[in-house]
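To assess whether ligand presence alters the predicted conformation, the chain was also submitted together with FE2/S2 (inorganic) cluster. Input:
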Amino acid sequence: MAMNGKGKAGETDDAVGNASISPNTTAPNTQIKYRDTLLFRLHEVQNRTRGKTWITKEELAGIAQDYGIPLAELDGIVSFYTMFSRERRGRHVIRLCDSLSCRICGSLDIYQHLRKKLGISRGMTTGDGVFSLEIVNCLGACSTSPNIMIDDHLISGLSLAEIDAMLDRLAKEGV
Ligand code: FES
């Protein structure tokens, strides 16, 4: 514990003598904190316009410049997270969980059904640009498996007919 200013640099005492560490603005901490906002920014840019579900090269370059990080590094971050895409995707992104619980509870049946209904396989976008179909790892809702996400909405426990109805409604909505 630092007492009367005799402790290490950056330590201060409060009224009852408890030491605390004051923020060191010269440490890389500041940079790390700044980067905390990076994922939010990427989400915001990706979904800024209704119906746009990917990040363009120009947007990526702009973010890299704003954050002062190399474009290659940002590219690595974006490709690490499956929520982001640098490729053009459909207006609606369907993410089907195929991790253990969902697989046991029928994710494969849902996949086969979606493949047939939409005429596309994983990683593809329908010809009309309405839907992209992605296979993802656990969505964190195993107790309600099988799960899919459509855009930002987690969908659990729907029958194939109910999923169809939802997709039909989205397809009719337009942008
Ligand atoms: S396994 Fe699908 S949500 Fe966890």
